[in-house]
Amino acid sequence: MAIFLSILCILALGVSLIVWSKNRTLRRADFIRTYEWPPGLYAKLSEKYPHLRRKDAALVSRGLRQFFVAYLMSGKKHVAMPSQAADELWHEFILYTRAYQEFCGKAFGGFLHHTPAIALADGNKQSNEGLRRVWWFCCKYENINAKRPTRVPLLFALDTKLKIPGGYVYQPDCEQLRKGGATGTQCGGDFTSSSFDGGTSGFGDTGGGVGADSSGDSGSGDSGGGSDGGGGGCGGGGD
User: Which residues, 6+ apart, have CB-to-CB distance to 220 below 8 Å?
Assistant: First the structure.
């Protein structure tokens, strides 16, 4: 009987730890979505991209929140930034050194170092893994079918939507575009392909649950929003 009770206690402790860890992750995700950016951060983004209006900057901030939540929900595995606009906002945020350090502590329990924005590319395994991971989680929380997308999540749509010079252009499916000879476009459907680096590492990661599963594509999500208000998925949060 004593052994049986000991096993029950161990199991109960294990379940309690799992629940506690999941609740902590959910609290951290909520913190990211509702975090108030340091004053003047949008103005710094406008210095880089003068054509952006305030509502555009707010949209970029929603994309950056997507990236942060994707990193958190992946278990803080390697991630890569797919947007030049969101990358610029991230870089400016880091320059608020004390605020960024405090944010990382509360959001992740540790410091998240900056990595430059990149695009899906041949022979770039580590970077492709990080991009696949971010694609997977952003699709998951916008209820997009990550394998057969009919649209792209906000973070991957930002540069095109906001006409960012030198930005990355993502399309859901490039089959028809390629038949017409189009080049220089990144394709969401390519994230399932191993032809770029010999594998599909990062695609289909499992993580904690915030938002919907990726099996559907309801057409809802953050891609068309213009504010930085509350909402589901990786985006949302007030400023």
Answer: 142, 143
Position 2 in a domain = no
Question: What pTM was computed for the model?
Answer: 0.77
End-to-end CA, the chain: 57
Q: What is the pLDDT of residues 10-37, one digit of tens each?
A: 666 565 656 656 788 999 999 999 999 9
Determine, yes or no, domain membership for 9.
no
117-152 pLDDT, tens per residue? 888 877 777 678 999 999 999 999 899 999 899 999
Domain limits for position 148: 28-192
Domain presence at residue 198: no
Residue 122 burial by CB count (10 A; 0-12/13-18/19+): exposed, middle or buried?
exposed
Alpha-carbon dihedral of residues 176, 182, 185, 191, nearest 10 degrees?
A: 40
